Amino acid sequence: MHGKATGWSARVRNTAWLPRAGAALLFVLMWSLVVRLGDYPPFILPGPEQVAARMWALAASGSLWRHWWATAVEVGLGLSLGVTVGLSLAYPLAHWRLFERMVAPYLVASQAVPIVAVAPLLIIWFGPGLLARVLVSALIAFFPVLIAAIAGFRQVPPEWRELFRSLRATRWQTFWKLEWPAALPVIFGGLKIGATLSVIGAFVGELISADRGIGFLIKQGQGLYDTPLVFGGILLLASQALLLYGMIAALEHRWAQRE
């Protein structure tokens, strides 16, 4: 019976991609149908075949992968920095009320200001290079991770903490054996949100100051009324967000299996 159940679950996992593929195909078909029925010119609404042809021409020239990789580096560094800062601040904010009262208003204020207003300042301060765009990406990504981690650390039941105290566990043992595992499911939720937002942050930085990247491609397409290029850039941004989301979801699944 166990072998049959294992075989069935393996078959389900092997066909899990079918609904996603079907949804993607349905989206492309509906997109193509809207373009054909509306008879829109390509500079207003290009069809999927025109966008694919434009992206293929970029890929053949080698520029597509250069721009994709430039944005991927910014997103990866920005997300890593945002996660590091968010997790580092989350633990003291979750446990020390005085520290929370001192720091929380500034953290909330930093998120109330639109990122498009902060990005030019960062570029003025740190120059138009990679660092400024990484900081923009980190700034928008760290807050969801911070809030999720605080909520995760605070949801640990008090009786569990009492149990660890009765066993004379050190603060580090309590954190590593109790608080961190208990908070991790919530932290993964914050990571998924932060990952998608980090792509937006890198894109905003590239729109303001960059000579490469997906944001640069979209800005170039807008200036030339090259709408297929703009659509292709949007799809490239979505591909990076989906890739990051899928990687975090895979890590979450592996952690859940270990538990």
Please describe what this structure looks like.
This protein is mostly helical and 259 residues long. Helix content is 86%, strand content 0%. Helix 4 runs antiparallel to helix 5, helix 7 packs antiparallel against helix 9 and helix 9 packs parallel to helix 10. It is globular. It starts with a helix and ends with a helix.
Terminal Cα span: 23 Å
The overall pLDDT, averaged over residues, is 87
Please tally the β strands and state the result: 0
Q: How does the helix and strand content classify structurally?
A: mainly alpha
| Regions with little confidence, pLDDT below 50 for 5+ residues | none
Radius of gyration: 23 Å
Give the topology string: H per helix, E per strand. HHHHHHHHHHH
Number of helices: 11
The general outline is: globular
What is the helix fraction of residues, given as a range? over 70%
Q: How is the main sheet built?
A: none
- Report the β-strand fraction as a percent range: under 5%
Keyword list:
259 residues; globular; mainly alpha; 11 helices; 0% strand
How would you summarize the topology of this molecule?
Blueprint: H1 2-14, H2 17-38, H3 48-61, H4 63-95, H5 97-112, H6 115-126, H7 130-154, H8 158-166, H9 171-208, H10 214-223, H11 227-258
